[in-house]
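re: ur question from earlier - yeah i can do the single chain one, its not a big deal. heres the input i used so u can compare w yours
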Amino acid sequence: MLLVPGDRFMWSVLRRSISLRVRITLGMAGFGIATGAFMSAVIDRQLEKELEPAARGRLQAIAGEVAAVLDQNLHRHAQELALLSTMMVSDSPSDLPSRAQLRKLVDLFRSHQPACAWIGVADPAGRVVAASSGMLEGVDVSKRPWHAAGLRSTHVSDPHAALLLARLLPAAPDGDAPRFVDIAMPLRDSQGTTTGVLAMHLYWHWLDSLVTEAADRHKSTPVEIRILDRSGKDLAAGNGAPSPQRLAVDTEEPGWLSDRVVLGVSEETTALGWSVLVRQRRSDVLAPLDRQRHSMMLLAPVLSLLFAAGTWIIAGRLVRPVLRLAERARQHAGAPVAEGESETQLMDRALLRLAQTDRLTGVANNTHLSEQLAALTPQPEGWAALVLINIDDFSIFNSSQGRANGDRLLCALAQQISSLARPGDLVARTGGGEFTVLLRGLGHDAPAAIDVALDLALRIDSASRTSLAPEAGSEPIGLSRGVLVFQPGSATADEMLKNVEIAAREAKRQGGARAVVFSADLKARFDSAIQLERELRLAIEHGGLSLVLHYQPQIDRDGHCLGAETLVRWNHPEHGMIAPARFIPLAEETGLIVPLGSWVLESACRQLASWAAQPEMRHLVLAVNVSAHELALPDYPDRVANLISRTGADPRRLKLELTETVLASDLDGLVQRMIRLRSLGVGLSMDDFGTGFSSLNYLSRLPIDQLKIDQSFTRELVRAGHAASIVRTIVALGQGLGLSVIAEGVETESQRSALIELGCSLFQGYLLGRPMPLDAFERQVRAHQALTPP
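and the output i got, formated as C-alpha cells:
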C-alpha cells in the first residue's frame, strides 16, 4: 500500500498494524482490546479536529445568510418609505396635500405592506396630522424618540412596545402585547425645509418570522439563532432558543461554538448596531464521536475473539478493515491530502472551493465573482472588463427540451467560454442561463480594451453556433452579450455587475444574439425605463385612471361593422399619450402585462355589457389581445369566467386574440386552458398568423375559431407575388379547418380588392378605420347606414 507523504495518521495506523501481526500469538485477546482502544482514540482525535472547523463554517454561513436577509428587508422598507415621502413633496406650504389626501396615500401604502402596523405623518411640533385608518390622528407624539430622530434623518429603532397603538390594533392570536420597529424620516419641501416626519411602525413579529424561517431552513443542524442589539440583548430567537436575555457579544460561552455577524450593508442597519449570533452546543457538534466510540466498544470484543484464533490469515484480514476504517476517517475532508497538509487544512480548502464554485458547471459562482470585483484596486495593467453572456429564451428551452438538456447546454457553454478566455480571466456562472467573464490587465488604452472584450464576446458567439449544436438540438441558440470596460476601483462590485447587466438587457431588447457595450447614455435610458415601469405600475394599481381603450373596426366585404379590436393607450399625466410600442414591451418584460391585460379584459367586458342594452350596438364583438404570460397562468380561464360573471358580459361577444408565441412551451396545458375558455362561449383567434410557430400539427390541436393574417403579408400583397401565395394558402387552410379568416393592416383599396379575390372576407386596417376613442367608434357605427346584425 502506498502512503501519502506527511500523513502521520495513516503511518501510525500502519505501523501499529504490523506490530499487531507479530503480537497475535503472544496476547491475542488482550491485544485485540488494546488495538480497539488505540484506534478509537486516534479516530476520536482526527474527527474532533475535522468536525469543529466544519461546524464553524456552517455557523458562519447561517449567520451571514440571516444578516443578509435582515439587512435587505430593513433597507427595502426604508427605501419604500422614502419613495412615499417623495410623493408628499410640495413647493410651498399652501401646496401641501390635504389630510384626506395624505390619509389616502398612507392607507394605500399600508395596504401593500403586510408587515406595517401603522404609518402616519406628524408636523414638526409632533402632532399627527394624517395616519393609516385615522389611528392616532391629533395625538401629540413629540415625546416619542422616533419623532425627534426623524426630524433630522432616517431613523430605525430597536423594537419596543407602543401601548396606545396596541390598544387600537387587533389583539394578537397568542395574546402577547405587540412590539414594533420604527422607521422614520423627515419630510422636506423643494427648498429643503423640514415640514414634518413620515413614520412607519413595523410589527416585530415580521422580523421575528424572518429569523424563524431561517431557522426552519436549517432544521437538520441543531443551532440557535439570535438577534442581538448593540449591548448584547437578545431581540429575537429561533429553533427553540430561550427567552430574551443579555449575552456576551465578543466572547464564546463555554460548551458552545458560535459565530456573529454585525448588520451593516445599508446605512439604516449600520446605525442600529444589531448583530446575528448563531451558536451550537459543542456536544451536538461532537455527537459523531459518541457514535464512533460506541461502535469501537462493540468492535473491540470482536477483534479479541478473532485474534484469539491465532492465525496469520485472520490477523491479515483484521489489518485491512482497520486500514479502510482509517482511510475513511482521513477522507472525511473529501479530497486527497497534499504534501504537509493537515486534515483541518484539507477541510478548509474543500469548503472554500465549494463556496466559490458553481456545482453544475464547475466554474466560479456569483459570490466568488463579486469578491474578486470588490478586491480589485487600480493596477499598473490598467483597464479591466466584464463580459456577460446570457442565453436567449433559456426558460423556453428548458420547458421545451427538458431540464436535463438545459443542464447539458450550460455545461457545454461553460466549457466553451473557459476555453476561449485568456489565462487569468475569471469565468463565473451568475444566473440560470447567464455567465460573466472578468478580464484584467487590458492596458491603458480604453478603445483597445473594448476591442479585446468585444473580440471575446464575438468569439464566444461564433464558437457557440457550432459547438453547442448537439446540446441545443432543434432549437436555435442565441447569446445576448453585454460588455463593460472599467477602471479597477472606480465603482463598487454591485454597480459594475448592474451596468454590464444593463448592456446585456439592451442586447436582448434589440432582438438578442448580439453584443452591446455599456455607456452612460444606455444607463440613462435604462433608468428612464425603470421610472416608466414604476409609473405604469402606479397607473394600473390606481384603477387605470390614465389608461384608455381605443377601438379599431373590423369590417366584412359588404362594409358592415362586425366588431372591433380593443387597443390600450396610456395618457400619461406629464408626457401625454405614450405609444404602445414603448410601454407594452416594458410590461411584457417586467410582468406588468398580466395586471394590464386584466384591466383591458375587464374594461372590454364592461363595454359589452353596456352595449347589450343598445339595439344598434349589441351585435358587436370585441377582440382582446392576450399575452403568452397571461395564457400561461393555470387559472387564467377561471379569471376570465369570474370577469364575465362579475360584469354581466355576453361571452359570445368576446374574442381573445392569441399570438403564436404561446405555442413555444407547454402545448398540452395551453390546449386544456383554451378548451376551458371555449366552454365558456368565448371565441379564440390566432393573431399574426404565419409569422411564428404555426404548423398543421398545432392548428389541428388548437380549439380556435379564427386565423388573423399578419399585416406584413397584407402590406406586400400587391407588390410581391409570394405574399399572395401565402395569403391564398392561409385562406384555404382556414376554410379547410372551418375557421374564419381576417386580414389586418388593410390600408389601400387595392389591398382590400386583392384580399377579396383571394377569398378573404373580413378586414381590419387604416382604410376602414384607425384606432379611435369609444365615442368616435360608436358614432361611426350608428352613422353607418348599411349596418345589419351579423
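The longest strand covers residues 561-572. not sure if urs matches, ping me
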